[in-house]
Amino acid sequence: MPSPTPDRRLDLQRRALASLDALPTAVRELGEAFAGAGHELALVGGPVRDAFLEVVSHDLDFATSARPDETAAVLERWGDTSWDIGKEFGTIGARRSDLIVEVTTYRSEAYEIGSRKPAVEYGDTLEGDLSRRDFTVNAMAVRVPELTFVDPHDGVGALAERVLRTPVSATRSFDDDPLRIMRAARFAAQLGFALDPDVTAAMTDMAQRLNIVSAERVRSELERLLISPQTRRGLEIMVFTGVADVVLPELSRLRETVDEHKRHKDVYEHTLTVLDQAIALETGPDGPVPAPDLVLRLAAVMHDVGKPATRKFEPAGGVSFHHHEIVGAKLTAKRLKALRFDKHTIKDVSRLVELHLRFHGYGEGRWTDSAVRRYVTDAGPLLERLHRLTRADCTTRNRRKAARLSAAYNDLESRIARLREEEELAAIRPDLDGRQIMEILDIPAGPVVGEAYRFLLDLRMDRGPLGEDAAREALLAWWSARE
Fold this sequence. Notes:
alpha+beta, Beta Polymerase, domain 2, 3 domains, 7-stranded mixed sheet, two-stranded antiparallel ribbon, 55% helix
């Protein structure tokens, strides 16, 4: 890869100087407080990298020669409040007004054999601390309060080239902390940078090392990748290097559905296209699906993961994937649970995968109002995301077919809007509640009340609002027939 031009380096340095000059006064005061206590302090990692990229960092990370107890003592005097929740890793946090800082003792991390948590060893020099960081773009520092720039591994050069390298060999770096394998894919998606060949090779050779990292740490990196500007790029790197085989094997397996006879589309490429299209349909902060939306992006990635298990070559030459949405929803829930996603995210993403094919029945024939009501009710609060996932799932190159599907979905959304105005679709309930059911039928609380409630709900779906009198007559007729 060619070296960056001097002009590119100078431009980056000018940006960084402007950003660093704008650091809050409290940062220099923090440096003075550490110096007064006989310790070194340096702004490190992401905030320094972001200064070169003209990105504002709201939370600032520092490294220090002070040990954790010494750090805590300085921060207690400097800040409005402080906390030691990361003390076992050498990190103490503090807040002063709106400024949040985390200060970590110079250190190195390495995984012990059989351990899922990194062992922390403290160091004595800033340069030694930087040599053990993940990538050279994150191995730059600015000493405070004097604002001296420290870059022993040419992070500026890597920024200028837009490439991710490791300060030491990638194999050694990833062996020290295998999570860096995931970080490589995440930073590629976040920054849009290429990977150095040494990084790519180490990721490929060492992907299985991720098995010793806790699921929570892996999930955190995957989440960051998914909400990055170039999500597709990060996922493609994961699949190419075999990292996805460990972290998200359902995505890797989509490549197994490539059909050499071209009887159906490439499901893997289709999935990445659906992801791109779903991201494009996210909205601004005041819209119904503000970008970046983790649930929508996860659903786009997972929507067809049931296809490898359900693919069937039909006698007539076609290919079917019957019930792949049901199988896919189960696989999605299982994978997200293994990655320790929260229950709400697991439920929402799995539900979107399960519902993503529902619309195709609409395209084949006009739905009744009852079917539209059920579509809205089944989607519940996920309706706006389902709209976007369904539209994104249309990747056909046939313009007529694409136009027909788009028009059909436009029609469905129009009908939903009309029914919503008429019937308050988001809050569909039977015309009678449980208390009224018990009074009318003169029965106590119990399973029969639930049966009656479900009967009235189905009736409400089929016929729309009935009013209490008509619902009462229908309920009594149902009760009579039941007896």
